[in-house]
Amino acid sequence: MTTAGTLTTPERLRDALYEVVGRRRDVRREFSDVPLDDDVLHRVLAAAHAAPSVGNSQPWDFVLVRDPATREAFRDHVAAERGVFGESLPPERRETFARIKVEGICEAALGVVVTYDATRGGPHVLGRHAIADAGLYSTCLAVQNLWLAATAEGLGVGWVSFYRPPFLRDLLGIPGHVLPVAWLCLGPVTHLEEVPDLERHGWRSRRPLEAAVHHDRWHDEQGDA
């Protein structure tokens, strides 16, 4: 149904979408030992695969990691990289960082590694000629779709970023031209926190929307040109 050329969305769908966006969290500690239902996993992956992509290239793949030994090896690598980052911090930030858990690799029901293949769609991807990273941005949209669908299903997702891509390529046998974009910890949770972890632990707070919106031209956060 349209009104004056505008698509009319039922209020319940609109409200449900905004509720899911608001409830979404980067989960670390809250994963439960409840198994992940195969039908639910399929729906979540289908939502990710339905993401828009430049030139309809669909440059993503999803590696589902269940093997405990593989997950333990990745967890140990992440722990080492966490140590590297921690050593780079000044003492007061290091103390704050020490309270923050950065992964739930072995606690989650499943690891989902989302990858980007720049060769997908051939050498002439419609819409990518001027922005080489448009395909990478498309893959991030697939991650966001997955995350929101998982939240709607009552699942938790945690994006692990403390890793070196060459290590993950070797661990999972990913071809050299394919970039591992995200290791996502996915699974049922006991609950979702009301306040994101980084805010609760005092690492960083969100910027207000007003500070991120610019009208016609760029202005800094103080409103100066």
Fold and architecture overview:
The protein has 225 residues and is α+β, with helices and mostly antiparallel strands. It has one domain: 3-Layer(aba) Sandwich (NADH Oxidase). 39% of the residues lie in helices and 16% in strands. It has helices spanning 11-23, 38-49, 68-87, 91-98, 134-152, 165-172, 197-200, 209-212; strands at 2-3, 6-7, 60-65, 110-117, 155-160, 178-188. The strands form two sheets. A four-stranded antiparallel β-sheet has the order 3-4-6-5, with helices on both faces. Helix 2 (38-49) runs antiparallel to helix 5 (134-152) and helix 3 runs antiparallel to helix 6 (165-172). The chain starts with a strand and ends in a 13-residue tail after the last helix. The mean pLDDT is 93.
Query: Within the largest sheet, what's the order of strands?
Result: 3-4-6-5
CATH hierarchy class name: Alpha Beta
Radius of gyration: 20 Å
List low-pLDDT spans.
Answer: none
Number of domains: 1
Distance between the termini: 43 Å
Oligomerization: single chain
* CATH superfamily descriptor: NADH Oxidase
